[in-house]
Amino acid sequence: MILSIISGYLHGLWIDKGIKQGRGKVALISSIVVSIGVLLFFKYSDFFIENINSMFATGISPLNLALPIGISFYTFQILSYTVDVYRGEAKVQKNILNFATYVSLFPQLIAGPIVRYTTVEEELNQRTHSFENTAYGISRFTLGLGKKVLLANTLGEFVKIFANSKDKSLLFYWMAAIAFTLQIYFDFSGYSDMGIGLGRIFGFHFLENFNYPYISKSITEFWRRWHMSLGTWFRDYVYIPMGGNRVSGVKWIRNIIVVWFLTGFWHGAQWNFIIWGLYFAVFLVLEKYFLKPALDRLPAFVGHLYVIFTIIISFVIFNADSLGEVTKNLSGMFGLLEVPFSNAVTAYYLKSYGLTFIIAAIGATPLVASITKKLISNKKGQQMMNVLQPVVIVLLLLVITGYLVDGSFNPFLYFRF
After folding, report:
1. Among 176-190, 287-301, 312-326, 331-345, whose mean pLDDT is lowest?
2. What is the C-alpha separation between 238 and 255, in angstroms, rounded?
3. Which SS3 state, helix, strand or coil, does residue 341 take?
4. DSSP per residue over 31-47, as a string?
């Protein structure tokens, strides 16, 4: 990370100087090559070696490199800085400590959101600290921690139980797929909430990363609501420079395929991530030409069901350790394996985790936020919330602490990326 910081800082100065001399593009290309080169080396070397060995029957030994913590996130942050300096959208940062602070901001460094330099450019030099910001930050952090510990971890236990069970059923396969779909949302959005909350305590205003994606009526809408910092990064730094949607139909499809191949590959050095990204590319193309006009004419719940079904299948692909596991899990879900529809084991775990599923499903919608908003819309409700909110946050933190003391270590899912 230190070497990446030095590289990004020096490239920023070089780009700024190069622009004035008409040679800024060379410096920009150098920045991209160095940043992407480091990411490829540490994260994807063994993936390339494994596939070369498989294709050409060679015996190249894997490097077995340790993945530097947060490299996928801070690499994209450095690239957003150098590209924005080249475009004239950001001023070059001449203070290396300020630039290092931007790259290494600990609240969101490990797993996002991907914070752009332009978002915190002014706050690196001057921030406003207040009790209001601190109170908001503590509340937001605690809610995020609650999402992770109380919901994501509990759902993760269910997913592990399913993986280790030898008494599977069709219903059990679907329950596990739904559990992981909810787990990854609460795990990742919980981390984002914690990062945003910690940032606010220190005077930084990070942008939102999730906006209730599971209420979407199309996959296009889903990706405007899910991991928004990654989606907008690829849009602004890959999709639009390639021409976006202001090109011919064939080139637009090419742009979509490239962006979603990269989106999948960014998540990890495995084929299932690439297939996961291309899976969404297919649906985005289908929506533009066929599905979206049809969905717009149908009742809204049809679009919701279509999105939920499509997303559940996508996360079955995402969560697998191999393509064989993807095939097995999908076969189990669609009745292609010799397993019963349900059994005693499935019924037991449905009863044990049913309430968690219901709470998680409700929590993934804006229902609670809408009720809270209505309560504070009048003076009495506002006064009541002023008393209840700190009490609820303190009680929630005590419950979370109890779970953490009693539980085992559960890292965030996005740490692996």
Report:
1. 287-301
2. 9
3. coil
4. HHHHHHHHHHHHHHHHH
Among residues 152, 223, 237, 235, the alpha carbon closest in space to that of 193 is found at: 152
Q: Quick check: helix, strand or coil at residue 240? A: coil
> Which amino acid, 385?
M
From the list 351, 312, 359, 329, the residue with the least C-alpha distance to 178 is: 312
What is the residue whose two structure tokens read 């606010």?
Answer: 200
Asked if residue 381 has pLDDT above 90, the reply is no
Q: Which two tokens stand for residue 11?
A: 């490239």
Token pair for residue 233? 């990064």
Instruction: Give the per-residue pLDDT at 414.
Output: 65
Torsion angle (degrees, nearest 10) of CA 51, 57, 58, 61: 50
Mean pLDDT for the stretch of residues 192-213: 94
236 dihedral zone (left: phi>0; alpha: psi -120 to 50; beta) = alpha
Please report, in angstroms and rounded to a whole number, the separation of the first and last CA atoms in the chain.
Answer: 15
Q: Two tokens at 184?
A: 């990854």
pTM for the full model? 0.93
Query: In 3D, which of 285, 287, 286, 265 has the Cα closest to residue 276?
Result: 265
Provide the sign of the torsion angle of the four alpha carbons 48, 54, 55, 56, taken in this order: positive
Reply yes or no on whether 227 is catalytic: no
Query: Of 129, 205, 227, 267, which residue is the catalytic one?
Result: 267
Token readout for 153 is: 């971890």
Which single residue is written with the structure tokens 């592990």? Answer: 160
* Model confidence pLDDT, tens digit, residues 139-149: 999 999 999 99
Mean pLDDT of 204-226: 95
- The region that residue 127 occupies, defined by phi over 0 for left and psi between -120 and 50 for alpha, beta otherwise, is beta
3-state secondary structure of 184: helix
- Distance, in Å, from the CA atom of 17 to the CA atom of 11, rounded to the nearest integer, reads 10
